[in-house]
Structure formats: C-alpha cells, structure tokens
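Look over both lines:
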Amino acid sequence: MPNIIEINDLSLPELKPYTSCNEIQLKRWFEPEIGIFIAESPKVIRLALDAGYEPLSVLIERKYIEGQAKDIVERCKDVPIYTADSDILTNLTGFKLIQGVLCAMRRKELPTLESVCKNASRIAILEDVMNQTNVGAIIRSAAALNIDAVLLTPACSDPLYRRSVRVSMGTVFKMPWTYFECDPPEYVDVLKNMGFKTVAMALHDNTVDIDDERLNSEDKIAIILGTEGEGLKMSTIKSADYTVRIPMAEGVDSLNVAAASAVAFWQLRK
C-alpha cells in the first residue's frame, strides 16, 4: 500500500525540500555525497523514474492520487507521499503545482566526458549559459533533433534545476550530458583532441553561413552556444575551427540562444 501522509503541519522538516530549500541547498542535500532535485509534473516524473532516478518523497494534490498521477503513486509506494488540497500546497511551495505533483529525487553521479562523447557525431556545447529556461529548452531541442550529447562549462546553470527540468519536458533524463572540468577556451582543445570540429555560433567577422557545405561534410561537429546577451567569449571564437552565423532578416540582429540552437541542430544534423 502507498504510504500516503495527510499534511497538517506546513513546518514539518520532511517537507523542507519543497518549502524552504533553494537549488544549491538541494544539490548539497547529502553533502559530501550527491544531492537531490525536484521533478515537476506527471510526465516529467515518469521519465525520471524510467531513467532510474530514485524517488525520496512525493508531494501531490489530493485529487490526483486516484487521477492522472495514480501510476506514480503506485511506483513510489515505498516512499512518503505527502498530500493536501491545491490551496494548501500552493501556500506550502509558494507556487501553483504544474499538474499537481512534485517528486524529490536523488541525483546520479555524472558520467565522464569520454563516455558521453563515445560514438557521438553531433554534440552541443553550452558555454556559461546561466538562464535555466534556456538550458532546458536547448536540451529539449537537442533531444528532438538527434544531437548525441550536451556538454556544459562549469559556469552553466545545472540541467537538474526545477525550471530546466520542466522546460526540457523531461528530456534531460534521456539526453546524455555532463560538465567540462575546464573553462573557456581550454575545453575547445579538449574537443579537438577527441576529433570534433568546433563550430562557434556567433556574430563575428569571418563567419560562414550555417548552410555552408563544408559543415555537413564534417564527420564530428561540436556546436558551441554562448550565454544570452554576451554570447561566446572571444577566446572561444578564436580557438574554434568555424565561426558560424544564422542569416537574419534586415533589422534583426539575432535569435534567442534557445531558438538559435534549434536552427543549428536542424541544419547541422548528421
């Protein structure tokens, strides 16, 4: 039988992951061991469970226990399942739950760079992308458009932060990803040593258009995307094999990095 617990006290320490912890605190929950993250919505939670992430507790609106999240309750029957009506949960978390369910889950150890890139021919690189929405959207586009892996520089926002997970629609659990251990532009040399031609997406002198025939003739490509506003570091652009731009209509400078990533992934797919 599921371990369903009615919430009568909003100050319960067991509810702390949902009430008073920021993303950094969740990430350090079991420090020095790996921490936890919050998955939101039934679809996202199902994908996380399918990918082998371990649930620690569930927070669910009462009406969904026998409704659209019934299967999640059954799959998480060995962990505490906290429940209440919608208004109580909104007061508890500070926001209205998307489709009425959250799940605290244990993180996994990140894979090595080598294992993520093994047999990959098209990978995406996120350089210092801090916006959680952009990180999630880029990963979703990468998964949809057959990119093999996503690599992030150390300054990037964590793909398992709640907003990134939600925006990715759970594809963050399907897409291989990990972090570089080095900062720009050193990681460019790491990619080159693994046999990738590096493609810096940037508005800069000496660029080639994204439909240049040379690009799709390359066996292995790393598509490098920069943070919103500042874009890629000049040292990264100078180190890359290609600097590539997406031609814009007159009067428009550029696309949002998430939108640009989708265009680049489609055009440069293998």
User: Anything to note?
Assistant: The longest helix spans residues 132-144. The chain is about 30% helix and 20% strand. The chain has a mean pLDDT of 92. The longest strand covers residues 54-61.
